[in-house]
């Protein structure tokens, strides 16, 4: 087993962390002294992201993990690598997501677009929790954080449809959260969803009303400060949201 950076922090695995909210969360958690496993499907972008964080000489460590969350073999390989290096995962942040149907009607969304969106945004979240469950159980203090979105809130979706496949997928993320939270209660592993809000990232665009730093605040809270008995909930900025 190898380590880098602070030995006192948590081992945090973040999917899709080469850019946007995932990258900012990785940087912020490394700044708090945690050891971050930054995963990405694109090796070049992922390694560049790791190099950028290392250049800041933060208290925590950061490691690159090549991972395609839609590929079972890639997930298996990632589990083996993390097991060898760290033997546990304290925080799993399921951040990887795609948005392929911006500003279209439901009738304009092809079934394969929905399939691809669900594969990355929903099925992969379920697959990651299941695959990394032994490493989460090995932690003794594990937490699971799923990146959802206010766009997936059923309470506010009527007359606010702007990305049908994406919105369906984020509603699905919340269902995954509730179902896994139920199962993992006996393990003492909280599973929660978090909405970062509309942030100025590659996905959110330059006109978004929040910075990436603002968007990560709820993630950081759930990763370390939130009471461990809070589970199966949906938050933005530490405030619980309706489903």
Outline the secondary-structure elements.
Blueprint: E1 11-14, H1 20-31, E2 35-40, H2 43-54, E3 62-66, H3 72-86, E4 91-94, H4 111-137, E5 143-147, H5 154-157, H6 164-184, E6 191-194, H7 212-215, H8 217-225, E7 234-236, E8 239-240
Parallel strand pairs: 1-2, 1-4, 2-3, 4-5, 5-6, 6-7
Antiparallel strand pairs: 7-8
What does this structure look like?
The chain is globular. The chain has one domain: NAD(P)-binding Rossmann-like Domain (Rossmann fold), CATH 3.40.50.720. The chain has 8 helices and 8 strands. Helix 3 packs parallel to helix 4 and helix 4 runs parallel beside helix 6. It is 43% helix and 14% strand. It is an alpha/beta fold and 243 residues long. The N terminus is likely disordered.
Salient structural properties:
243 residues; Rossmann fold; eight-stranded mixed β-sheet
Radius of gyration: 17 Å
Structural class: alpha/beta
Number of domains: 1
Helix content: 40-55%
Major sheet: size, sense and barrel closure? 8 strands, mixed
Strand content: 5-15%
Low-confidence stretches: 1-7
What is the tally of helical segments?
8
In CATH terms, the superfamily is NAD(P)-binding Rossmann-like Domain
**What's the CATH topology label?**
Rossmann fold
First-to-last CA distance: 41 Å
Strand order of the largest sheet: 3-2-1-4-5-6-7-8
The averaged pLDDT comes out at 92
CATH hierarchy, class? Alpha Beta
Give the gist of this structure.
This protein has 243 residues and is an alpha/beta fold. Helix content is 43%, strand content 14%.
